[in-house]
Amino acid sequence: MSFTSLGLAPSLLRAIDNQGYINPYPIQQEAIPAILQGKDVLGIAKTGSGKTASYVLPILMNSMGKNVSKNRHIVVLVLVPTRELAQQLEGVFKEFGSELPKRINSMAVYGGVSKNPQMKALQGVNILVATPGRLLELVGANAVHLSQIDTLVLDEADKMLNLGFKDEMNQIFNLLPSKRQNLLFSATLSKDVINVHQLLLKNPLIVKIEEDDTSIDLINQVAYFVAEEKRGPLLRYLIKSKVMKQVLVFTSSVYKADNVVDKLKKNGISALAIHSKRSQNARTTALDKFKKGKIVVLVATDLLSRGIDIEFLPYVINYELPRSPKDYIHRIGRTGRAHAQGEAISFITPEDKNHFRVIQKKMGKWVTMIDSEALNL
Ligand code: AMP
Fold this sequence. Notes:
The protein is an alpha/beta fold. It folds into 2 domains: 3-208, Rossmann fold, CATH 3.40.50.300; 214-374, P-loop containing nucleotide triphosphate hydrolases (Rossmann fold). The chain is built from 14 helices and 14 strands. The strands form 2 sheets. A 7-stranded parallel sheet has the order 3-4-2-5-6-1-7, with helices on both faces. The chain has a 7-stranded parallel sheet with strand order 10-11-9-12-13-8-14, sandwiched between helices. Helix 5 (115-121) links the parallel strand 3 and strand 4 (127-130). The chain is globular. Bound molecules: adenosine monophosphate (AMP).
């Protein structure tokens, strides 16, 4: 199947071509026609499946016939859990919208940066990508109104609907008109997603992309059994012996992330950290430098495990294992994206052994374990 048969306008097909996409991925084949028809969609698809384009393209198409929004009434709202994902999505809307005959204004708002420029820029915006907290602040300041929204998207829906965002999401739902198109995308189908599915979606098309179809099989997973205090030397050994040029390292705490960066730098390996205690500017710069290949290692907490797309990222390392098996899937999903090969390496200390067994069981896949004792660290 080709993109031309999906009912998209020539200007969007040109933008797709500019991106170098040849054929639509399965989720795009199913979701695009349904969204164009105004249907609600619940998309269950793992990271790297192409879910972003599956809603961005039909939303742009549906927006083409609409008037520019007036008096700060936005028409499409996309809610995301992290600032980085908001920025990334704004970029995707801009890229796919670049060939449209009439400009459709899209914008991202998120916390951690000054509110005033966002308040000013919100005039005439049709499509808004937002994190919940900042959106509510802007609504409170009358900088944006939600009562004329006709399309709501929850990306990373399982995260948006869990306890951490519950109050904010309820406040937002109360501000939306009841008649609207709802699009939910989630890599994992948690209880929260099932509950809200009843609340939010009217007769939805449910698109479930089976695990076998997606990127997890493109990820070569390896685990190294290692003593806790040997993780630093093992990390440096792997970076050097595998001649890694770009590797995303996950830690479980802010403290550990900074600590790993310090040690790498002391050993002459360029590294930066992204976590909740760093300023938004520092986070944006670090991600940008990493994407452009200006630093070798980006060390991150789970803040970055959701949705972030780094083209052809070859390596992900779990320096510390995440507690939740879902986070493990999200983390390793940063590599092996867009049908490219990737390697995910996990460090397993004696205390992690049982927990890693649980993760593998949940994932339905057993990972080769190498004992690092045998390596010359
Ligand atoms: P996503 O799951 O939306 O984060 O997309 C994962 C990656 O796949 C991104 O780098 C996209 O640019 C890429 N991608 C999405 N759809 C296609 C397609 N039809 N052909 C090639 N690459 C794609």
